[in-house]
Amino acid sequence: MVIYGTALLAFCMLVGLIVGQLLGDLLGIGKNVGGVGIAMLLLIVMSDWLRRRDRLPVPTQQGVLFWSSIYIPIVVAMAASQNVVKAATGGWLALLAGVASVVACLALVPLLSRIGSGQTTDPDTQTGDGK
Amino acid sequence: MSWPPDWLITLLEKNSLITAFFVVGSILWFSSFLSTTLTRGRIHGSAIAIFMGLALAYMGGIVMEGEKGFADVPLMAGIGLLGGSMFRDLAIVATAFGVRLQEFLATGLSGVISLILGIFISFLVGGLVAYGFGYRDAVSITTIGAGAATYIVGPVTGGALEASSEVIALSVAAGLVKSILVMTLTPFVAKSIGLDNPRSALIFGGLMGTTSGVAAGLAATDAKLVPYGAMTATFYTGLGCLLGPSLIFMLIKAIV
Q1: What chain B residue is nearest to A21 in terms of C-alpha separation?
Q2: Quick check: helix, strand or coil at residue B236?
Q3: Chain A within 8 Å of B255 (Cβ-Cβ)?
Q4: What is the pLDDT of residue A19?
Q5: Which range (B55-64, B104-113, B114-123) has the least confidence?
Q6: Domain boundaries, chain B
Q7: A123 φ/ψ angles, rounded to the nearest 5 degrees
Q8: Can you give the pTM of this predicted structure?
Q9: Is the Cβ of A113 closer than 8 Å to some Cβ of chain B?
Q10: Is B256 exposed, middle or buried (0-12, 13-18, 19+ CB in 10 A)?
Q11: Could you list the residue range(s) of the whole structural domain that residue A67 is in?
Q12: For residue range B31-54, what is the model confidence (pLDDT) as tens digits?
């Protein structure tokens, strides 16, 4: 049944959020620490386990796949409910701080991708294939 | 009789989530139409849709003077529900379905490194900008730096350090700018920074940290990369809230 898949997804999300909340309380910040990430790991492990035991029929999978395929529309709705006006009225400081942090982090992506990517090449001797 | 009639508005408001499905579906249809006709597919339909969402959010914010952009229009309340954290997180978790565990574990270490580096770099850069604008006290510098991490780390850090409300507002604005930039910029720079495999997506998520920015940016680039980037990004805000008012504040205080 399709609902089994959605229920599995909901279970993983709730467990992840609970663990994330407990982790946040433990660290004394009252915020959820990685609840969604933990939920993702749980879903990966559980679906892998179910698949290997042949307990994941197509209808069950559809109950999860629907939600991952509706992801982009949800993201569009999320974009439409951002406080864009506030971002635009934050002045030069806010704009500069945002831009600078994005640029700095973007520049680091290729650098970090190369480090520890299996190949122990010196970052200075650019080999080109950072596999 | 005036158009639209009151009963129709009431009906649409009462079924706000359904109205949202229809509106968002229409936006996506129109975006992919623009993508194929105007750009011949060069700009991803979802990138255009996200941009249209942001434009609607701006207009909604101007008209309604609220905080939730387009979703503050009463008729569009369902957009706020559909785009809120509940459905967003459910959909993000769902993208992990079918991902192999080994792919995550193999890149685990670079994910952790990118997270820590991403947080420190954002505080550093944001703090430097604050310093450049004349802020000299460690509390304000740390709070604005926190805003350059994400728009949640900003007010949480500022609140813990008892920063002024003006500085907290600036940190939120900086975080919003970052999130919107990541949403719109990612598809255009993806190629030049090698953002085309799970590994670099994971690192990207850890460095950027803004869940909404990463979620939308990767969706507009290549939907297959979403689970990897979202995975690390969801740890970022919590970690930033942990390090900001403690370790990073002490470091900045020692320097200033």
Answers
A1: B238
A2: helix
A3: no
A4: 93
A5: B104-113
A6: 6-83, 101-255
A7: -60, -20
A8: 0.81
A9: yes
A10: middle
A11: 2-82
A12: 999 989 998 877 778 888 988 998
